[in-house]
Amino acid sequence: MSEVDPQIPFMIEVRGLSCGYRDTVILRDVSFSVRRGEIYFVVGRSGCGKSTLLRNLIGLETPLAGEVCFDGENVGNAGHETRRAMLRRMGVLYQSAALWSTMTVAENVALPLEEHTTLSRREIRELVFVKLGMVGLAAAADRYPAELSGGMRKRAGLARALGLDPEILFFDEPSAGLDPVSARNLDHLILQTRESLGTTILVVSHDLESICTVADHVIMLGRDEKTVIAEGRPRDLIRDSGNPHASEFFQSGLITFGEPKKESP
Amino acid sequence: MVKRSAGRREKFQEIRVDVGGVDSWDSSLLLFVSQIRKYAAELNVPCNMENLPDLLRNLLEQAGESESAGGSQDAMAGPSLLVVLGERFEKTLAGGGQWLTFWGECLLGGLRMARRWRKFRWRDCLIFMQQAGAMGLPIVGLISFLVGLILAYQAAIQLREYGAEIFVANLVGLSVVREMGPMMTAVILAGRTGASFAAQIGNMKMNEEIDALETLGVHPMDFLVLPRMVALVMMAPLLTIYANLLGILGGYVVGVGQLEISSSAYWYQSQEAIGLNDLAGGLIKSVLFGVVVAAAGCLRGLQSDRSSEGVGRATTSAVVTAIFLIIVLDAGFAVLFERVGI
Ligand SMILES: Nc1ncnc2c1ncn2[C@@H]1O[C@H](COP(=O)(O)OP(=O)(O)OP(=O)(O)O)[C@@H](O)[C@H]1O
Ligand SMILES: [Mg+2]
User: Fold this and answer.
1) Domain segments of chain B: what residues?
2) Closest-lying ligand to the alpha carbon of A205?
């Protein structure tokens, strides 16, 4: 786990964000900032609005209030084309994986490359196999999403999100439905991606072990409070989060995993 | 049991539940006890439940909590008529706005496609053409043939009175080429293809696939709508030509088989009756019908709610919208063609 240098500029800045659907407010007044190259975790009980937060960040939903900036640029006032250009720099893994069901896994991964690069067909095919190899799915390249298991779908979605080497990655519960070995491989992949490309990664996850091993910073959303109830470095939160709900969440891991890992010298 | 005796207006002093001696139970006991408790609260009599197992007591408490969190009954009462009317109006306006936006985006997508036609999804488009066109041939053929047949019989009844059976060829030929061919083809397309477009797109929306397109910088218009639109714009006139031929064939079968018109006379009469302008008018209409069917299917799919029920509604509404628009357009064309003399 590396410390994040305060000199590094912010990649994602969220100020006073409130979101919800029609007349129900799901989250209010959420603020946080993610530095370039940081691995940022969002946790919270089921139904507290993590996916909603993500949808608002990437602009699929319009926030009720507040603003979201990527790399210093406000998404809210950005025109259509600027927004599109921003989206091109992001990769998203949806909670449901959201693979295009009429295309094979390989075609799914290839589509963003076809749309946004000038690579030849053969180069794209090779690149697709590299990405699928990274998530251990090269053997299933020519299968359709309906023929995959839930975890395989997640991994295919991951390969697709990694396709264009995005600067910002959003993962919605990447390890849900994965076996422990695949989940640890995933943690490794997340670290590796940050290491090699300097990617900023925002992960929604419940997996305490992931949080302990890869997260630089964690924020916890409260279901009843409808806002951020705790934030900080994972080991600080596990020691003392300052909120009973958050403590309950983080302490639940201690039984399984023992003390949080010590920092390597 | 408690309720039944209450129905006889007996007055309870106290309701007592004794579950002592019960050592195995399931949810029905929970339901029973919870109903009794609710009933006691309604009647305003104390309810004494002392002998409950601990687990049951906990479950009962949880059930009570979730019930009170479920909102009051008053909120379920229907809104006033004015509110309903206002909401309806608002919804209609919004629907109109969505149509306009859709057409605008279609236009933009078309322009984009013209600029970079290499990126157009020809493969998808070919698949849709096959599904809408080639696979629709049997049903379009059959229905057109039967429509031709029916028209011929109807015409024959009237024309036989004047000994003018030969004009069956004119009547069938003109009505098929100008009206029935394009219209029946469009209606079948709406039912077969428009509905499947709405279902496909609605399902994709439910599964967040459309969101995934947007976030990967692929325009849903370019990716989903245009290939479908192009496919139908190409297939609708082709299918119409085919439908015209089979419709005329239907009339021919009746004319030659039943009315004893000679084969060559029937063909000659048909050729004389049907002008190029009739044919062209029908084909122009069919192109527009194709656009309308594709647009209704895609738009309703894109608007659908994220649930299987929503997708079902989208499918129905795609067909209804398409058929409605086809008929309205056709009426418009009838007036227009009459004015310009086609
Ligand atoms: N399209 C929608 N319309 C209305 N309400 C919604 C919609 N989507 C989600 N909600 C509500 O918003 C709340 C938050 O949902 P969200 O999907 O963000 O939860 P989550 O934190 O991602 O949960 P999980 O961990 O189970 O994925 C839920 O109470 C849900 O009922
Ligand atoms: Mg979620």
Assistant:
1) 2-77, 81-119, 121-340
2) 1
Question: Best of B209, B224, B302 to disrupt the A interface by mutation (most A CBs within 10 Å)?
Answer: B209
* Residue of A52, A54, A55, A220 to mutate, ligand 1, most atoms within 8 A of C-beta: A52
Q: Which residues pair with A17 in a beta bridge?
A: A30
Which residue do the tokens 């990437």 mark?
Answer: A58
Q: Locate the ligand 1 atom nearest the alpha carbon of residue A49 and give its number.
A: 18
What's the pLDDT score for residue A264?
A: 45
**A50 Cβ inside 6 Å of ligand 1:** yes
Rounded Cα gap, residues B179 and A216, in angstroms: 69
Q: What is the Cα–Cα distance from B284 to B288, expressed in whole angstroms?
A: 7
Residue A169 Cβ inside 6 Å of ligand 1? The answer reads no
Instruction: Dump pLDDT digits (tens) for B97-148.
Output: 888 888 888 888 888 888 877 778 888 899 999 999 999 999 999 999 999 9
Q: Are B132 and B189 a contacting pair, CB within 8 Å?
A: yes
- Among B200, B211, B217, the residue with its CB nearest the CB of A98 is B211
At B66, the pLDDT band (50, 70, 90 cuts) reads: low
d(CA B199, CA A25): 31
Q: Is B217 on the interface with A (CB under 8 A)?
A: yes
Q: What is the pLDDT of residue B36?
A: 84
Which residues of chain A neighbour B116 with C-beta distances below 8 Å? Answer: none
Tens-place pLDDT, residues B34-44 = 888 888 888 88
Q: Is A165 an 8 Å CB contact of chain B?
A: no
